[in-house]
Amino acid sequence: MRLHTLRRPRRRAKWAVLITLVLFTAVCCASPFTTTLNALAALAASRSTTGNDPGGGTIADIPPRMLQAYQKATALIGHDVPGCKGLDWPVLAGIAKTESNHAAGHSIAANGDITPRILGVLLNGSGAGGNTTAVADSDHGRWDGTAQGERAVGPFQFLPSTWDDSAGRDANGDGVKDPHNADDAALGAAVYLCGNGRDLSEPPQLRSAILQYNQSGAYADEVLGWIRQYRAATKASVDLSHVTGTARTVLDAALAQRGVPYSWGGGAVSGPTTGSCCSPSGKSGASITGFDCSGLTLYAYAKVGVRLPRLASDQAGVGRRIPAAQGQSALAPGDLVFYAYAPGRDATIYHVGIYAGNGQMVNAPRPRAAVRLDAVDAMSGFAGGARLL
Question: Across the chain, what does the average pLDDT equal?
Fold first, then answer.
């Protein structure tokens, strides 16, 4: 059985992929290429839940006690599933980010207990939260507070029946297998994802494990995106010893801004500035001093006398264009990296970063984040790059 059944609607209409892309990538500094895109993004954002909050992707995003639980589970899994390979904490973080935003808004005690409890919608077929099939009660309300049916529970959103039948574990040693305890839930999720002994370092097996958790391709893509970002965050350093000249100057300038807040419309040749209102998801930069993606690139390149246009889509017209078909291997440190709603159509470019080498870029990713190092494939719609130096 899946851990949760029809807990959120899965968008299947022809616009679904576009809406998901807009939300997941969280438009950073797009050109106004259609008002339809902005309207769709705003509509989708208005329907998003805390668990789908597009902010994050860094270790600082995760409550320390939750991170401890993820790391503890990866250390213990060898005892529960000896044949499991390749489980690292970003896999668990990717699931928990998508399911509960790492228990955001809840207190996490020293022993891992989470209060108040995290409860999904009642799966009674009412249509609320996307559920159209009633699921019979299995725990008499012990975990989900109701005997009228089932609710997904805890930071990993288990169905009580799945928890009691197979996934439940006592990882904190208190004698209770509790899905509302961070340690127990993280280990239970690890056991479920590992199955009888998957090798989660193999992309097809990792995707299969996630699909077992929720049988939706869009869901798997969302989780995998977070996994990539958390893995990149664990390697948040870059060796620039081999980078010299103007490329080094550009990268040094951009990297010096790490930790500066994202601000929609923010950034100029002089440095961070207050932004403007509003991003397609309704986030204003008017009270935030910082950078958006193209503001950061504009600033860094100004350090070597290169004046860039303000929008990411316009910046793609500067320098020698590197087609997406050439792949990341064609990029060199200092190159601009672009992302588009429709790769191959530069008018749809919505995001830009600065390639730093080793598959990483300096990135001002989205509202509620900060300038940081990210994996190049942490964003959707890779559209190649441009060499200006």
Answer: 83
In contact, 344 and 324? CB cutoff 8 Å: yes
Say which CATH number the domain at 251 has: 3.90.1720.10
- Same domain? 134 vs 38: no
Cross-strand bridge partners of residue 290: 273
Locate all alpha helices (DSSP H) within 170-310, ordered by sequence. 182-194, 203-213, 217-234, 245-255, 293-302
Helices 89-100 and 217-234 sit at what angle, rounded to 10 degrees? 130
- The span from the CA of 251 to the CA of 360, in Å, is 12
**Are residues 325 and 204 part of one domain?**
no
Token pair 């300096």 in the structure block, residue: 362
**Distance set, CA 325 to CA 40, 290, 318 (Å):** 28, 33, 19
Number of separate domains in the chain: 3
Q: Over the stretch 107-145, which tens digit does the pLDDT of each residue have?
A: 999 999 999 999 999 988 877 767 778 889 888 999 989
137-195 pLDDT per residue, tens:
888 999 989 998 899 999 999 999 999 999 999 999 999 999 999 999 999 999 999 99
Q: Is 336 within 8 Å of 349 (Cβ atoms)?
A: no
CB 165 within 8 A of CB 195: no
Q: With a threshold of 0.85, does the pTM exceed it?
A: no
Q: Indicate if 304 and 382 belong to the same structural domain.
A: yes
